[in-house]
């Protein structure tokens, strides 16, 4: 049994259990959660190293051969996502240590956060579509609790659309799973991939793939299914917003990439026109929504929607470079977006998220301003930061496959992103403060807990920007693995005994 | 049997969707529970219908030789029922809190409340 593969799932689960046992001793619970997420990051880095050195890793739980047993598969895409989950989890828990109130902690804030990470990692590592549904539910119910935990009216109002839309999305997903099982008799990704390559199933594969596009698209917040996101993400505490902004929609994008490369592949180089139009509309509506907003976290939430369009664009182009660009963009986006939410939290200590009521932050905290600038410029795609390379790879992939319209849209949206980031810069950092805003209200230790994660994440986007080569070569390798799906299928189904392909 | 079940599933989906589209959270709860039952029936039907052939191996035989009812959809449905029960319970509790705190069950009124205040 490959223990290393089980660790990213077991560690957050066991840590959450320990957290529940120590729920009457919050100081101990906090330490356990911090150490647990740190160990989670460490074990997922080990797993990624193992994948990069030894190829795709497979774990059959209970020693039942695929496609009957519970399969976990880790390729470069999954491995990288797990590492990012560990990183964002650790950053968010560190940030929470100073910002989450006692009441939320007493309600089990840390164990629920760890259960969320448990669900996210399970979704990234599973090799079975019904298990993917179950992992989705694990992370959803944890996110429901994190969203609604607290007393404010806006939190309740934000949770209702989030819960309802996600319930309906899960139902679409379950319908698609039922239809897939009815038509192929299998639920294992690798086995399904083999079965669906049968041309007689093409007629049923088409509607099922659309159902899955709807289900995962809803969770990823693509056009026109995104409106729950800006309503709910600004409501909870910043540490929760940042965690959601980084990870949750990206699980949807991951599921889209997995299904559309493994289950319903079209010949390489043939663009998915439907997904291309959706990507373009997602980018435009998201960024226009952001430009119209006047509240820090709402601006950022609309930008999440807009950026999802870039991630699906690479997948829609359906070329090696396109998929690699999507992969690169997801990694970049998770880091940058989480960081911007963290910055908004520090600014909010001055009393508000509303842009009109803020100001003068550049004078009072120049270091924080620098960190904001790095992340904001990276989001907008200015060189030499990671966002530039993400957009560059996408544009190159788009031009190579002759999709000039979507490349034009993506560049225009980049410009509008800069505009909206400039608005935040002018209002929050540059203009004179109506009320003084600074991090000086905190003592040095408290500042450290907030600024260390922000600084580390900002450094990562700079490093990815300056030393892009190793990262983009990993992205290309991940794309190769996704395209050459025979290797994945063969590894999972080897020693299958009774399974007839 | 399949045709009959298909009709039932279709009607349940129609009823559920109609209820979900009403501007009232309690109707939405009923709609969601009907929709999840329709989904469970769909999974059940996708496992093919058989009558009176349980998947039990006779005591003196090594394996089953005749055709038998597929037990896997039942396992899937059982999981789905447990999950949807949990989610439904959460939705009911959330609806209660919405009613208590926001004094409304109309989604349009509720979303107007999502203007954020300063929470950290």
Derived from helix and strand composition plus strand pairing, the structural class of chain A reads mainly alpha
Roughly how much helix do the residues of chain A carry, as a percent range? over 70%
> Helicity range of the residues of chain B?
55-70%
Work out the strand percent of chain A: under 5%
**Order of the strands making up the biggest sheet of chain A:** 1-2
Provide the gyration radius of chain B in Å. 21 Å
Number of domains of chain B: 1
- Mean residue pLDDT of chain A: 88
Q: Low-confidence segments of chain A, ≥5 residues, pLDDT <50?
A: 496-501
Q: Which range does the strand content of chain B fall in?
A: under 5%
Mean pLDDT of chain B, nearest integer?
85
H/E element order of chain A: HHEEHHHHHHHHHHHHHHHHHHH
**Could you say what the CATH topology of chain B is called?**
Helix Hairpins
**Strand tally of chain A:** 2
Most strands sheet of chain B? none
Tally the beta strands of chain B: 0
Number of helices of chain B: 4
The number of distinct helices of chain A, counting runs of at least 4 residues, comes to: 21
Helix and strand element order of chain B: HHHH
Break the fold down into its secondary structure elements and pairings.
The complex is a heterodimer of chains A (501) and B (120).
Chain A: H1 3-21, H2 26-54, E1 57-61, E2 70-74, H3 76-99, H4 102-106, H5 109-125, H6 129-148, H7 153-184, H8 189-196, H9 202-220, H10 228-232, H11 238-263, H12 273-292, H13 296-317, H14 320-348, H15 361-364, H16 366-380, H17 386-400, H18 404-430, H19 444-466, H20 468-483, H21 485-493
Antiparallel strand pairs in A: 1-2
Helix pairs in contact in A: 1-2, 1-5, 2-3, 3-5, 3-11, 3-14, 3-19, 5-6, 5-11, 6-7, 7-9, 8-21, 9-11, 11-13, 11-14, 12-13, 12-18, 13-14, 13-17, 13-18, 14-16, 14-17, 14-19, 14-20, 16-18, 16-19, 17-18, 17-19
Chain B: H1 2-20, H2 25-46, H3 72-102, H4 107-112
